[in-house]
Amino acid sequence: MSTVQNILVLGGGTAGLTAALTLKRKLPQLKVRVVRSPDIGVIGVGESTNMTFPKHFLEDLAIPLPRLMKLIDPTLKLGIRFLWGPRPEFHYAFAYELAVRHPALKRSNAAYREDGPAWTGPVSALMAHELAFHRGANGKPRPHRNFAFHIENPKMVAGLEVLCHEAGVALTDGTVGEVERADHGVAALRLQNGERVTADLFVDASGFRAELIGKTLEEPWIPYTRSLFSDRAVLGSWEREDETVSPYTLAETMEAGWAWQIEHEHHINRGYVYSSQAISDDEAAAEFLRKNPKAPSSPRVVKFRSGCYRRQWVENVVA
């Protein structure tokens, strides 16, 4: 098998740009090119990560935190606040608080959560008090690394494009018109402008379109419908007024699914994920608006599917 020297990433969203940046920074001798379509937009509902996301950029890719914050302008997320089940609320922090035991206690901290306070340790206490950091002796915030991000997709993509450019990743605007097959998988992409693009390895980051792994190589799709019933989402956002910028993602039970709330500096993103087998789109939208009177009167409904392809690496294509 020949050595991979030339990689093409199809898709210029968060996944595609992150893959391209990681490949180029880890293996700078590679030629990495991203082909992104100007005709395909993004859902644009805001995104919420776990701790592995900033950890990858800060530690694996060695991007300084001030630089990353300036480029993508995230808000900090310390965990998830659940309005879920019989208790009034539950603060799940991205810190090792539940599975550890305070020296003065006989059992793990989690054993005392049932009838105890709304927090178990310092990070969940910050969440419960709508704070991100403790204050140090000098009066300034005392940082910690138990956080993730709330990000806005356009800002995230713009920041990743800057980092990709600095790393030497080639960014090409173009729409795929045809995919050429070969015995080893994909031979080339023909763009609508007539350009023929080849590579040793193709990364399919085209999302639900799955141009290479699904449409071209016809890898079987394994649906998760037997265990994950949600296949719709009602989306809405509004400009922030006097609301506190909460340091967590809110997760709340609804009639036929659950709702999230993602915090940004100047606006709030809210979504209701539900099962179309249990409730109609109109009923879901009405429930969403009852819960969120500040949301637009005609919220967006997005259809999606849950599952995966049987293999994520087929011939010379990685999805």
Task: Determine the strand fraction and express it as a percent band.
Answer: 25-35%
User: Biggest sheet: strands side by side, in what order?
Assistant: 6-5-17-18-19-16-20
Structural class determined from secondary elements = alpha+beta
Q: Quick one: biggest sheet?
A: 7 strands, mixed
Strand runs, count = 23
**What's the N-to-C terminus distance?**
20 Å
Helical stretch count? 7
- Low-confidence parts: none
Percent range for helical residues?
10-25%
Describe the overall structure.
The protein is α+β, with helices and mostly antiparallel strands. Helices cover 22% and strands 32% of the residues. The protein has seven helices and 23 strands. The strands form six sheets. Strands 6-5-17-18-19-16-20 form a seven-stranded mixed beta sheet, with helices on one face. Helix 1 packs parallel to helix 5. The longest helix has 15 residues. The two termini are 20 Å apart. The mean pLDDT is 91.
Give a concise summary.
This protein is α+β, with helices and mostly antiparallel strands. It contains seven helices and 23 strands. Helix 1 runs parallel beside helix 5.
Annotation keywords:
319 residues, alpha+beta, globular
